[in-house]
Amino acid sequence: MGPTDLASDARAQAPARQRAVNDFSIQVATVNGSGSQTANLILIRSIFQMGIPVSGKNLFPSNIAGLPTWYTIRANKHGYIGRKKEIDLVVALNAETAQEDALTLEPGAAIVYDAPMKLEALRDDLTFYPVPFDKIVAAVCPDAKLRRLVRNMIYDGVLAHLLGIEMAEMDKALNRQLGKKQKALALNMAALTAGFDFAKTTFAPNERLGVERMNETAGKILIEGNAAAAIGCLMAGVTVVAWYPITPSSSLCESLIDYMRKYRIDKETGKATFAIVQAEDEIAAVGMVIGASWVGARAMTSTSGPGVSLMGEFTGLGYYAEVPAVIFDIQRVGPSTGLPTRTAQGDILTTAVLSHGDTRHPLLLPHSVGECYSMAMEAFDLAERLQTPVFVMSDLDLGMNMWMSDPFPYPETTVDRGKVLDQETIARIGEWGRYKDVDGDGIPYRSLPGTEAPPYFARGSGHNAKGQYSERADDYVQNMDRLRRKFDTAKGLVPQPEVDTADGARVGLLAYGTSHWAILESRDQLRDEAGLATSYLRLRGYPFADAVADFIAAHDRVYVVEQNRDAQMLSLLRMDLPASNTVKLRSALHYNGLPIDARSITDTILAQEGASVGGDAQP
User: Fold this and answer.
1) pTM
2) Which residues of the chain fall below pLDDT 70?
3) Which class for 215: exposed (0-12), middle (13-18), buried (19 or more C-beta within 10 A)?
């Protein structure tokens, strides 16, 4: 099934399309492993270089090669960069999916395809562009073994003509991608040019879609969230990385390895100032992280849902023994193996209370590559201040796809190690106990091995305020109450929510992570199409700040928008907030594995508000 989400019977009701300049969605349908990644990156970067806001999303199978893959590029002059549900132009190069790709398009859409497929016979309400790819590539690439690798560049050339993408920008993007590989550059440039020349002599430019130069991307960069998080870890001073490969988190540690080798090798000795270990599994990886953190290193791992499940017992040790750790969860679709290459926000509830017994873990909720960078640094500071595991909850859409961003600022503050015991502190507080609440915030003072501070025995079994083994009921209750007090302190330390209040709005939207980008567009749709004004709170961290309860109290109804089936964030809100608040909460859920889109949110909310698109919303 193709990823357009459009029912075939909806085509007949689609309105006539107006010309869309800098406002369209392209979907490239190929076969996994066919070498289309380079062509897609050239295409998205060329549009970006023309100053047009753009985003790219890769829908690929979980096997190595041979199954269908789709890459979607959205260009939007208003800056909407969430997934668009409707597709305006398809490039169909996969014979297995080509017919369905064509049949699910709305009338008036366009399709570029391999001429032998004869897709023009399927329907008469599309604009068809048959291209003899094999004939064109054979003329520019004499080596038959290499033709498959450069064949995809032909559709870049075709699209450059049809949409008005400047060939100079295509050339610039291609040189950026392959400039160090001169033979590959020459072959790809020949295919790109051949595709453009063929289209120019065969087709008129598309009448309904086109690009015109803007200035909305000046100074911005394109980067994946996992790479951004890796840079943040580097800047945070990470020295120990233990990990086990799992989609979609692997590229975070792989990027970090490259950065550490480039920037963290001692220039005088030539030796690494860090340790990176690929563990035998996720259990070992998080165990190494907790051990390294206990002795004072800044340590982290990255994983996804199945790995988080395995990390439960060690995470409980980190919580109860109060040892810092940073864990990145790049969420994917579950349960079990699930859909490893589809996106979701399905680990929120389990991660917040991961491990047996009573546990609560701080969660950071980045919505952008910029926050992947900044929250990586915040996570290390927060883990050491709170002396506990901290999770950064990204997802596949953010981690593995290309996003626009302002350049990342160099950190201006020093690292925060939290309450690390020294002689001055010992003199001030008098008798030290490893788990003694001196300041009333639930956070004790810790000592690090190898320093002059008093040692202690770290244990995951029962202990008293001095860190001594204890099975006394009062010691256990006092310790658990202090841990809860520490979690309450975390409310003011985690990233605070962002609130945009609309005058007179009685309906609020609450979301987190990558749902943010669809929310921005959906709010405009709700206002323009149904006259429904909405306020918006974006969660950035857990535990919930007081502003969350205030936001809910200020509205009649609050829709919690999330990408899972079971309303996991709403469940956390109900666990943590008074019932008088949570009775106002409703769900808007999206869980098909595709990145959430604005239209789905809008339709879900209007259905619950008792209105259809274009109708009057409930007051």
Assistant:
1) 0.94
2) 1-17, 64-65, 611-619
3) exposed
